[in-house]
Amino acid sequence: MAEILQFESTGRKPPADRSGGKPDCAHRRVVAYTAYRTVRCALCGAELDPFDVLVEMFKGAPPTGSGQGEDRKLRREIARRRGIQSAGDKPSRK
Q: Which of 28, 45, 64, 81 has the lowest tally of Cβ within 10 angstroms?
């Protein structure tokens, strides 16, 4: 997943394409040039397809709503354990 290092909105022209950049570069850090609607790899300088960068970012993000069931289970377990603990802390009636 690419990390956007910078949104370049000053209108500064992006550097010239370095003909695909380095062959082994994974393009993990990018700079988005908003005025020119282009994205370049911050490491090798290759011009990337903005939509491809966006898709890769979405692939790495967790889906919305994921983990809510787990969160509920965890809260119930904590409440259950607190109930057991507080019941054990009460002095016995003799």
A: 64
Strands (DSSP E) found in the chain? 3-8, 29-33, 38-41, 47-48
Longest alpha-carbon distance in the chain? 86
Sign of CA dihedral 5, 10, 15, 19: positive
Which of 51-73 are b and which e, b meaning 16 or more Cβ less than 10 Å from the residue's Cβ? eebeebeeeeeeeeeeeeeeeee
Q: Is the dihedral of CA 28, 32, 38, 44 positive or negative?
A: negative
- Which amino acid is it at 73? K
Q: Letter for the amino acid at 89?
A: D
Tens digits of residue pLDDT in 39-59: 988 888 889 999 998 888 888
pTM over the 0.85 mark? no
Domain residue extents for the chain? 3-89
The total of other beta-carbon atoms located within 10 Å of residue 93's CB is 4
